[in-house]
Amino acid sequence: MKVLLAPGGLWPEPAGVPLAGSGPGLAPGRVASCLARGWRAVRPHDALTLLPMADGGPGSAQVIAPDQVVSREVIQGRGPLGQVREVDLVRLVPRAARSGNRHRGEASTWFLDAARLLALPADPDEAAQEVLEGSTSGLGGVIGAALSRTGPLDTLLVGMSRSAVHDGGLGAMDALGGLRAAKELLSHRSLGLVLADDIALGGMSGAGAALASISAISPERAQELDRRACARAMEVVSEAQDLDAGAVGPHRLLPVVSALDDVGPSASAHAGDSTGTARLSASTWGTGAGGGSALVLRALGAWARPGARVMAQILGLSDTVRGQNLVVAAWGELYDVLTDGVVGVVGQNAASQALPCIVVCGRCAVSRGELAAAGVTNAYGLQESHATEPWDATDFHGLEARLTDLGSRLARTWSR
């Protein structure tokens, strides 16, 4: 039997936001290894393919296999409070074009794991400090450093997710040299935002409104900070529009040449307005990522796509699914199956080949009907529905042991 293990990470979500890389939990590679170990202990002759998945959140660069990488380097940057952090910059192996092989010297695609720089802390008090004092300037710094490595026809993909910082992205813009310098820099580059979180910056369900739930600040203080961040960010959007309107001569349209197919703005219905700034606002899809940096960067000329879909293309999910007999996905806590999330993307790819897809998760609160609509046959949770102790109330080794046992159970149930 041929089984594809394509799990995301198992991270707790105490406020509905995955704490990727923070606190207890397992990265996608460890999830895949544990499931494979348990499966092989019971069905050693089954052919297992391990393809850990990511969504652009912290650590996404780690799932990119060595044979897909031309080069990998570490860039040092500043975290929200000035602390030194490291992010990966990966240059991807070019894929053969549909009309033939690529020639040497053609454009490259790069992936910057920038989400690690502004990763959401597990401690609400630490998160509160980042809300009140944090800046996105470090993000602008590492983006500028990454762009300096790329060529004029290259595509730089920047992984971004939810953050406790909420400065509207002004720190990032300032680190890129201010509005005019940043606008000029991005006009000569193809910059894509790989969004692990589609939340808007402002609004009733925006990143600002959620600050009180992810940190130890009051709703009143969160509302005040949100109003300020949204106002400042929208000033940048308006000023960027004025620069476009006052530009002399024809605008240069950069060709999107990439290791990905259709990597440009038209590749996602969600990014339909990302070709310009006319419809950008604080309530636009995905603008809340990176403390609002997603809104400012899009005003400066960047485009955006759902992270799980971009990572699926980088990793070659659709090709790997073909010829399998079963697909196994995984996610930390499943309250719904997002179409553009890891489970939704894996389920859709399995369904396209009429393959059963099962999901492993820490906790599952999704009905069978919702799972079926997403191409998922069944879900297996580490936490029982009526259990009082949360699934992540154990150490790293205990979580690995439980996941390995579940891998054995799945093999007994599904292998034939």
UniProtKB/TrEMBL annotation:
Assigned keywords, A-Z: Kinase, Transferase
Keyword Transferase: yes
Pfam families found in the cross-reference section: Gly_kinase (PF02595)
Coiled coil region boundaries: none
InterPro entries assigned: Glyc_kinase_flavodox-like_fold, Glycerate_kinase, Glycerate_kinase_sf
Superkingdom assignment: Bacteria
Name of protein: Glycerate kinase
Species: Actinomyces oris
Classification of source organism: Bacteria, Bacillati, Actinomycetota, Actinomycetes, Actinomycetales
